[in-house]
Each structure stands twice: as structure tokens, then as C-alpha cells.
Write a structure and sequence with these properties.
55% helix; 3-stranded mixed sheet; membrane; mainly alpha; transmembrane; transmembrane helix; two-stranded parallel ribbon
């Protein structure tokens, strides 16, 4: 019997795990993984934070419309699946909770999340919380170690709202916290997601693109790291893509110019934390193996070295900076990319086309000539003016020569008269 138990424990793969130690070891990023005001789930449950169980109880009453019978029905719904929810965590993280305490934690945390999102989406209506505190809460809800199984949320939602209504609510929430672009649309099956962080991860990536077979013979790793500024100097320009997922990256070559299309990304105070926690999620043993977000960050890090690179992307409508200076954004990507491993076959086609364009001597020569001599509209106008003056000079010279050849000699005219 003991052998069976040991075998089950070894094969058990929790869906909600801690941040890998390799990522936590980066000192500059350590604070991005811990909650600031509210704990969700067992990992940080015993920390003394601003949102206490009393606050969560009040939010649970709100979620139940202050109906005691509905509240009890919601609790019983969670109680039925509490065992499955416990299995989504490692044994050491739940051993301090008996069945009743664990069920209560899942119930209060689940109601808190859903009531917060509902109030947040509806313009802070009935959300008895200061806006500054709400900003920290929305940040804490997207931490890897601050998640509860989506199954718990699903059971709590089933007694209050229709499925389509909650899908719209979640999408609206992700848009409002700037994790998703306002024009993004998705038919994602939220019930297949593991938790809130997994929902954003799923929305931001086209899994079909990531899982598509790649021509491994023709694609190579991103050996040459060139910034936006360097690529622009050789005729490669950047434009926003029509799609809004991180996988919507394309390259097109038109005559002597190249165009890289990148999805719009919004950078604010919570972006670093959100991206790092999605990277941590991808690093978990049972997470998707495509490394979509990690690959995107590494790709952007290869393009962004300095503030000038950020400025170019910002001026072309690819990057919206709500963080501060352009240098801060450059530092953000450079810091996040530390110790990251990307999938070499993500964006392989784009990287290959970029490399071929960069190595085309004719295109490079022409682009560098334009970049050197036509850096502003005035130089273009001056060049056009010089060409126009040269054409006029040629015409005048031609007319002068032609007039000389066709004008009769005076001696000839005199002889003819005599």
C-alpha cells in the first residue's frame, strides 16, 4: 500500500506552483512575485497584509447579494470540489489546512476575486476600496503564487451569472488593467484555463501559431542581436500589426525596404510583474512548453537596447509608455530578459527574413545612403531642388547650343545680300 502512495505522490503534478528558484534568484525581480496587499490561496495565506479575512468576508456577502441562503449554497458548491482544488497545490503548501479551513479559504478568496472584478469592470461600483488600493489588488491577482483553481471560480460563477456574461466581464477586466488591447477579441474557453494568470497567458498567445510545425532546417537561432536603431539605419522599419497577440509578428520586404510588424504593448507600473509571472508560469513543469511569452520578451530585448529604440517603437504606435522615461522601458526589458530561455523556433521565419535582408549588400548600401543623406524632410527638398536646378541647367545649355547651331553666320548673310 505504501508503494502505491509514493507512486501517486511522484506522479502528481500540481497546477499552481511556486516561482522557480532560478527566477527568484534575480535580485532586481524578487519583489515582483510576492503580493503587496492581498493573499490568494495557501502560499501567502499567513502573511499580514492590508486585505484581511474580514474584508474578504464582506466581499463574499456582497457577491451573494447579502443573501444568507445564496451564500450557503455558494459555500456548499465550493465544498464539493475542495478536494480537487487541494490537489492543484503541492502537499507542503496545504498541510497546515484541514478540510474546513481549506474550503473556507477557497470560498472567501474566490468570492473576493469575482466581486472585485465585477465591481472593477463596472466603474468601481459598490467597491468599498480606495483606487490606489484597488490598483495593488489587480496587480496581486496576477501573481503565479497568488492563484486559486479556475474550477473554484467556475462553481461560484454558475450560481450568479451566465457563462457569456462572465466571459465578457473577464475580457473587459483584462482590457482595463492594460493586459489586453481594447480591440482584441477572443473565443477562448475560459473553463479550460487553470487560473487567472493562465487566462491572460492564453489570450495573449495564438497557440495554433506556436504549435505549428516549423522548418527546423531553414530556421536558425537569433545569432545577431541588432537594435531598432541599427535595423532602421539599413532600411528596416517598424509598424503596428493588425493582430494584438504577442505572436502577431511579421516581416515584409518591399523593394529595398523591410517592414517588421509588432503587436501593440502597453507598459505601466504592473507590466514587469505580470510578464515575469507569466514567464515563471511557463517555467513550471506542467505548464505549456511553447515558451511564448519568454520568447516574445527575448525578441523585444534583442530589439531594445537604449531609449532611442523605445522612442522609435513609441513613435510608430507599437509601444504605449505609461511607465515614465523611454530609458525606463528599455531597462525594464533588459532586466526581465535576464536568465530567460526562449523557444528558437518562435518567430523563426521573421528572424530568418530579417537576417537575409540585413545581409543583402545592395539593399544595405541604398538604405545607408538614404539614411545618411536624407535624415530630414529639408534634405529631401534640397535634393529635389538640386535635381530640378540640374535639369534646368541642362535644358538651358541645350537651348544655348541649339540656338548657336541654328543661327546663320553674319558673313554668310552679307555675301548673300551682295
Amino acid at each position: 500500500m505504501s508503494n502505491v502512495v509514493i507512486e501517486i505522490d511522484i506522479d502528481r503534478k500540481p497546477k499552481i506552483q511556486r516561482v522557480p528558484s532560478l527566477l527568484r534568484g534575480v535580485e532586481a525581480n524578487q519583489k515582483c512575485y510576492d503580493p503587496l496587499v492581498v493573499s490568494i490561496g495557501p502560499f501567502h495565506h499567513f502573511k499580514q497584509l492590508e486585505i484581511t479575512d474580514e474584508h474578504k468576508c464582506a466581499m463574499a456577502h456582497q457577491y451573494a447579494n447579502n443573501d444568507v441562503q445564496l451564500r450557503d449554497r455558494l459555500y456548499n458548491k465550493v465544498k464539493v470540489i475542495a478536494g480537487d482544488a487541494r490537489n492543484c497545490y503541492s502537499l507542503d503548501s496545504t498541510e497546515m489546512f484541514d478540510e474546513e479551513k481549506f474550503t473556507k479559504m477557497m470560498f472567501l478568496d474566490g468570492c473576493f476575486i469575482l466581486q472585485f472584478i465585477h465591481c472593477f469592470v463596472n466603474g468601481y461600483k459598490d467597491l468599498k476600496m480606495k483606487h490606489c488600493l484597488a490598483a495593488f489588488v489587480r496587480r496581486d491577482l496576477l501573481l503565479l503564487e497568488n492563484q486559486i483553481p479556475f474550477q473554484v471560480l467556475w462553481e461560484l460563477m454558475s450560481l450568479r451569472f451566465a457563462e457569456d456574461q462572465w466571459k465578457q466581464t473577464f475580457s473587459r477586466f483584462f482590457i482595463l488593467i492594460r493586459a489586453l488591447h481594447p480591440q482584441a477579441h477572443s473565443e477562448t474557453d475560459f473553463d479550460q484555463c487553470a487560473h487567472l494568470l493562465d487566462m491572460i497567458h492564453t489570450l495573449l498567445l495564438d497557440k495554433a501559431t506556436l504549435s505549428a510545425p516549423q522548418n527546423k532546417k531553414d530556421c536558425s537561432d537569433w545569432f545577431s542581436y541588432r537594435s531598432v536603431k541599427e535595423l532602421k539605419a539599413v532600411g528596416i522599419h517598424f509598424r503596428p500589426s493588425k493582430g494584438h497577440q504577442l505572436t502577431n509578428v511579421q516581416f515584409r520586404s518591399i523593394f529595398l525596404k523591410g517592414f517588421v510588424k509588432l503587436p501593440l504593448i502597453i507598459i505601466d507600473d504592473s507590466t514587469k510583474s505580470m510578464l515575469l509571472n507569466m514567464v515563471a508560469y511557463e517555467a513550471c513543469p506542467d505548464a505549456p512548453d511553447e515558451l511564448g511569452v519568454s520568447s516574445y520578451i527575448c525578441f523585444m530585448d534583442s530589439l531594445i537596447d537604449h531609449a532611442e529604440d523605445v522612442k522609435e517603437l513609441r513613435s510608430n504606435g507599437i509601444l504605449l509608455n505609461f511607465l515614465g522615461s523611454d530609458q525606463q522601458v528599455a531597462d525594464l526589458f533588459n532586466q526581465i530578459a535576464d536568465n530567460l530561455v526562449s523557444n528558437p523556433y518562435v518567430y523563426a521565419d521573421v528572424k530568418d527574413k530579417l537576417e537575409r535582408h540585413y545581409k543583402n549588400k545592395i539593399k544595405i548600401w541604398f538604405a545607408e545612403w538614404l539614411h545618411t543623406h536624407f535624415t530630414s524632410p529639408w534634405t529631401v527638398l534640397a535634393f529635389i531642388g538640386a535635381i530640378f536646378a540640374l535639369v534646368l541647367s541642362v535644358i538651358q545649355t541645350y537651348e544655348a547650343v541649339y540656338a548657336t547651331e541654328t543661327t546663320p553666320c553674319p558673313c554668310t548673310l552679307a555675301n548673300h545680300t551682295i
